[in-house]
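Students often ask why inverse folding is considered easier than folding. One informal answer: many sequences map to the same fold, so there is more than one right answer. In these notes we will look at a single instance of the problem. The structure comes first.
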C-alpha cells in the first residue's frame, strides 16, 4: 500500500524555508533586471501611488506571499505590471512543485537557473521525506546537494 505520511511541523518549516530562499533569490534577480521607474512628463514624485495605479513593494510582496502559500497562480493577476506577474507565476510554480514533490512541474519554468533550483528543491523534499540522502545525488550543484544531504539526515 502506498500511504502518505503527514508532514511534520519541522519538515513544513524546512519546506517553507526553502521556498523563502527561492523567493529571496528571485527578488534579487528581479531587482537586478528591473528598470527604475521614471516619472512621466507632468508627474512628480509627490504624486500618490494610488493616483497612478502603482503598487507598492509591500502590496506586491503580500500578493506573492499569498500565491506561494496557496499555490494559486491566478492571484498573480492582481499585480499590475507584467514583470511582477511573471515573477509571481514563477514563484507559484516553484511552490507548487515543492509542495507536490513533482519535478515535472518545474519544466514550466523557462529560466534554466530557476528551473534547476526548482528541481533541486523538489529533490530535497523527496530526500527529506524518505530520510534518504542518496536521493540528493541527483542535484548537480555541490552546495545545494550538501544542504540536501544535511536535511535528509535530520
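Output (designed amino acids):
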Amino acid at each position: 500500500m502506498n500511504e502518505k505520511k503527514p508532514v511534520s511541523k519541522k519538515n513544513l518549516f524546512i519546506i517553507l524555508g526553502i521556498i523563502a530562499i527561492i523567493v529571496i533569490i528571485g527578488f534579487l534577480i528581479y531587482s537586478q533586471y528591473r528598470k527604475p521607474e521614471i516619472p512621466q512628463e507632468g508627474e512628480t514624485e509627490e504624486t500618490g501611488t494610488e493616483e497612478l495605479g502603482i503598487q507598492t513593494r509591500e502590496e506586491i510582496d503580500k500578493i506573492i506571499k499569498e500565491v506561494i502559500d496557496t499555490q494559486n497562480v491566478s492571484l498573480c493577476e492582481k499585480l499590475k505590471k507584467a514583470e511582477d506577474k511573471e515573477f509571481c507565476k514563477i514563484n507559484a510554480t516553484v511552490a507548487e512543485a515543492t509542495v507536490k514533490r513533482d519535478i515535472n512541474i518545474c519544466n514550466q519554468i523557462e529560466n534554466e537557473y530557476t528551473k534547476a533550483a526548482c528541481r533541486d528543491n523538489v529533490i530535497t523534499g523527496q530526500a527529506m521525506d524518505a530520510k534518504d540522502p542518496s536521493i540528493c545525488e541527483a542535484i548537480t550543484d555541490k552546495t545545494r546537494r550538501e544542504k540536501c544531504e544535511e536535511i535528509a539526515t535530520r
